[in-house]
Amino acid sequence: GPEGVVYAVEFSHRSGRDLTNMSKRRANIVPIVEDARQPQRYRMLIGMVDVIFSDVAQPDQARIVTHNASFFLKNGGMILISIKASCVDSTAAPEAVYAAEVDRLRKDGCKPKEQLTLEPYHRDHALVVATYRASKKKKE
Predict the structure, then answer these.
(1) What's this model's pTM, rounded to 2 decimal places?
(2) Rounded to 5 degrees, what are φ and ψ at 82?
(3) Is 53 strand, coil or helix?
(4) Strands annotated E in 11-134
(5) Collapsed DSSP state (helix, strand, coil) of residue 27
(6) Cα–Cα dist 19/15, whole Å
(7) In terms of Cα–Cα distance, which of 69, 74, 91, 88 is closest to 126?
(8) Neighbour order of strands in the sheet with 125-132
(9) What is the full per-residue pLDDT of the chain (140 aa) written as tens digits?
């Protein structure tokens, strides 16, 4: 919304230049041209956030998003991760890749809530929604 702030991390210098130019028209977007694998390099620019959306298309993308979450995401915050199966493992079936990435999210403190394939718009892509360090429900 109009009060929210978007911290947009982009590694590519060309795309980063486009992001920086676009952010001149949208005052609530903070462009950060940096490697998402190294959140310590931009930690001083970002406070705690409610949501992380990740679309990095890297073999270790689940690790990248949870590593960033450990720096910036509030407990109980949400992660949305777009998984491109062929970027993680081009030899495995997409469903196996999604399952492995969801397992990695679980191991790193996330509780998956929903998984959607992006067919027919994007082949072999899925979107996973997860809660980060969800608070335990109290027994009554």
Answers:
(1) 0.87
(2) -90, 120
(3) strand
(4) 29-33, 49-54, 73-84, 110-117, 125-132
(5) coil
(6) 6
(7) 88
(8) 49-54, 73-84, 125-132, 110-117
(9) 667 899 999 999 999 999 999 999 998 999 999 999 999 999 999 989 999 999 988 889 999 999 999 999 999 999 999 999 999 999 999 999 999 999 999 999 999 999 999 989 888 999 999 999 866 665 55
